[in-house]
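Just wondering, can you check both lines?
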Amino acid sequence: MAASRLALPLRGGRGIHRRRTAPIGRGAHGGVTGGGLGVCMLLLGLFPTDRPGLDLSMSGAIHRYAGFVAFLVMPVAGLLLVRAKANYARAMKALSGIALGALVLVVIPYVVRMAGVPLDNADIPAGLTQRLVVVSEVGLLLLLALHLVRLPHAAGHRTPRVVSVQHAAAVAPVPARTSRSLAA
């Protein structure tokens, strides 16, 4: 019996009850949101923003729109995890809502300026809304990390043990090798 228990993990886990469902967060939507966020972060690093007061350059435009998409993708990923019944779903839903609401407040001044309405930076609390977006999305990242840490335990997966405690006495101990026995 002990030999069969030792060989069980070596057979690729056949015979062990495994769940057939895919873990939460994997799939087409998770790949698109994760890949989109990664590409946007890469673009943000490659293309610096323009200094305040200068006209918008191509690099600044790429940085601006990649940042917008990155800030939009994170709450969408949070809502997808809420839909998949992830750990901490309530907090993820709240932070995703806060992030999306604050992102709308960040975008409104740009839309107003594009419509031709003169708007001064002193008229809007841009710094406050941008910080609110960043803080809520950092909170989402923290919850995502906590979800991923708890995922194996929440799904019921266990790491197979080579020798169980009740059969440990049936296995012969392996003699320790010393430097003298290695030289011989």
